[in-house]
Amino acid sequence: MSEAIAAQLPATESVLPKQRGLYFAGEWHEATGARSFETFSPGSGKSLGQVAEAGEADVAAAIGAAHAAFPEWSAVPPLERARILRELARIVRENAHELALLDAVDCGNPVRAMVGDANIASAQIELFAGLVTEMKGASIPMGPGRLNVSVREPLGVVARISPFNHPFMFAAAKIAAPLAAGNTVLIKPPEQAPLSALRLAELAGDLFPPGVFNVVTGSSREVGAWIVADPRVAKVGLIGSVAAGQAVMRNSADALRPVLLELGGKNALIAYPDADPDAVAQAMVAGMNFAWCGQSCGSTSRVFLHGDIHDAVLARVAKHIQAFTPGLPESWDTTMGALASKAQYDRTLHYIETGRAEGATVFAGGKPPDTPALAEGYFVEPTIFTDVTSDMTIARDEIFGPVCSVLRWQDEATMLAEVNALDVGLTCSIWTRDFDAALRTATAVEVGYVWVNEVSKHFVGAPFGGKKQSGIGREECIEEMLSFTDLKNIHMKFAG
Length: 496
Ligand SMILES: NC(=O)c1ccc[n+]([C@@H]2O[C@H](COP(=O)([O-])OP(=O)(O)OC[C@H]3O[C@@H](n4cnc5c(N)ncnc54)[C@H](O)[C@@H]3O)[C@@H](O)[C@H]2O)c1
What we know:
Elements: H1 2-8, H2 12-15, E1 22-24, E2 27-29, E3 36-40, E4 47-52, H3 56-74, H4 78-94, H5 96-107, H6 111-130, E5 138-140, E6 146-154, E7 157-161, H7 167-173, H8 176-180, E8 184-188, H9 195-204, E9 213-215, H10 221-229, E10 233-239, H11 242-251, E11 259-262, E12 268-271, H12 277-287, E13 302-306, H13 307-321, H14 342-357, E14 361-364, E15 383-386, E16 403-409, H15 412-419, E17 424-425, E18 427-431, H16 435-444, E19 449-452, E20 467-468, E21 471-472, H17 478-482, E22 485-493
The structure holds nicotinamide-adenine-dinucleotide.
């Protein structure tokens, strides 16, 4: 089976985008001064070529194109916008393997997992295509001869800035809601993995009138900062770290511009004494998203095991963790890829050292693999620390690497206080057969997304987002689309 699919995968060179420039106003542009930066494959260390390095004037030109296209696009009837989005979804689905391979070589995640990403992107685009007529307003009966209506209007230029862990999925899926609502978009893909956004523009850019969909690339955070500084941008949606979210919000203050922020997490998996130890062991591993080296905002990297089942769960973890062995991302059989960059690799190894130094026990992994074929890439084995306490650094910081911390608990109130002690609150996974405990805990945890006897999965249409410093706003649902609209109230009085 896997051989047959591997045979269908195109050669890596053939999936690289030919265009490496900036895409705006429906055309490809060189960056000012023909500046560029090099992008590398984190699995092999090999160069994947040059990509345009946008300067401030280039960013301004791309925003100008999006701004100029807004009146035309916002006037396109909703069902026509939906038709174009469905066409986009079809193109994404038809090219899922090619796009997945491109992401695999550029960001290090395994190709098989990235096919899933492309299909999720497609499903989300279809969701928003189906929601275009739900951009409804309301009316208030104000009496005879009067009509009071509230209408929803698109905002204008929406900027979407994304991180490296799901490059294509974020490029494709995150444009759907703003476009469905009649906004134009500018995307800024991650500096570590910019290629799939360029390929998206190659494949689908001409579906839209010029200026409706635009892409700018760059190797530094400045590019994102220039976007945020431009007063013509009506809303910024950022997926990234808490620090970047704070910067975007701060820099949006002068313009009094709304922001949509999907930021980091240090999420808890909580297992009660009645939970099935094998199911919890499996969930511990699944919740870490080891396929993409734990580089997922929703990863449940703090595992709170009740003392009664602590040892029984750990006794079953090895069996499940075996499913994840670091391998070359472009190989169909690979179940766990490479970290996205040297910075992520160094950061992960640093936290592993810190965990050891602070007295936690390495239960699994804890080092790069010994495989010679992986020596040039940024690979780290799936790592589990036991004997972790809540005051340890590895129990507090988002590592964004394949490192899971296991904590033992006895008293529910103490455990919940520890779960809620951090400034972030994105997801939580609760394992119990006791309905009361499940509901009590789901209510008590200060997060935006809770699973009971499930983990890791997202559900198209269900609101995803964080509380506290994990973000502002919700995505993957109708509220995401409505967040790219504003309400206008119109009161009419008719003669006679
Ligand atoms: N909540 C979610 O849905 C979600 C999903 C994926 C990743 N994340 C988070 O992303 C982080 C990992 O990604 P990262 O290290 O690439 O994040 P990052 O914050 O360093 O970068 C993310 C993006 O923001 C840009 N950026 C950085 N600083 C900026 C600024 N001051 N102004 C404008 N743009 C700026 C970067 O260029 C990049 O495109 C983790 O914290 C992770 O939890 C969150």
